[in-house]
Design brief:
Blueprint lengths: L1 E5 L6 H10 L3 E6 L12 E4 L16 E5 L11 H22 L3 E5 L9 H17 L3 E5 L2 E3 L10 H9 L1 H9 L2 E3 H13 L7 E5 H6 L13
Helix pairs in contact: 1-6, 2-3, 4-5
């Protein structure tokens, strides 16, 4: 398959590009000139600006799956302005580029919600989801809460609390919806999303429980779209 990744030089993007290339897919990565050296071996480099659809829309085709991974690193409540400056314009640009090229499938990493914190981040990701819905694109939206991996491990101290909350009926659903996923589970879920698009013109939503089931669980990507 032909896969075009925005944010392909980052935490998730490099790992996703590597996994897709290993499975024989053609991968192109959008990057700024100063980050071109971070594009993984085997991927094609496309120089452009993720905030400007016109800088890369002409390189997309109807056969492409566009995976949008651009986002503020290590999001926190203190970064509300950056969410508005980077995260929201970038998904709006991706939607515009996808519409212009009539791409086959758009994959977007949003965030689990509702949640008791990170409201600014959630609001921006919800607006991104709304932009996709308004455009009528064929899309998959993944909603992780926190992705554990190198440099992103501090929430492991919360695992005992999660275990308790999953036992208590009143907090079980929230604990599962806002659960922690590993980088391996996230990458595998993205690969599954790429390889198993939803019905044309529909949006499929993949929540934390499906992401956590991760590797090899393709059935979650063949159900009736939400």
């Amino acid at each position: 398959m032909a896969v075009f990744i925005t944010g392909g030089t980052g935490y998730v993007g490099q790992r996703l590009a590597t996994a897709l290339i290993a499975k024989g897919h053609r991968v192109r990565v959008l990057t700024r000139p100063q980050s071109a050296s971070r594009v993984v071996a085997g991927a094609e480099t496309v120089v452009g600006d993720a905030l400007d659809a016109s800088s890369y829309a002409s390189t997309l085709t109807r056969d492409d799956t566009l995976v949008h991974l651009v986002g503020t690193p290590h999001p926190s409540p203190a970064k509300a302005a950056e969410f508005r400056r980077v995260d929201l314009p970038s998904i709006r640009a991706a939607v515009s580029a996808a519409q212009s090229a009539s791409v086959a499938h758009l994959v977007y990493v949003s965030v689990a919600h509702p949640a008791p914190l990170m409201h600014d981040y959630i609001d921006v990701r919800r607006e991104g989801e709304a932009a996709i819905a308004s455009a009528g694109l064929t899309a998959t939206v993944l909603r992780p809460w926190y992705v554990l991996g190198p440099g992103h491990r501090w929430p492991v101290i919360l695992i005992p609390l999660y275990a308790i909350c999953e036992v208590v009926p009143s907090t079980r659903a929230t604990a599962r919806r806002l659960g922690l996923v590993t980088i391996a589970q996230m990458v595998q879920s993205l690969v599954n999303a790429v390889e198993h698009p939803p019905a044309i013109g529909t949006t499929r939503v993949v929540e934390v429980p499906e992401i956590k089931r991760g590797a090899g669980v393709v059935s979650a990507f063949r159900r009736t779209p939400v």
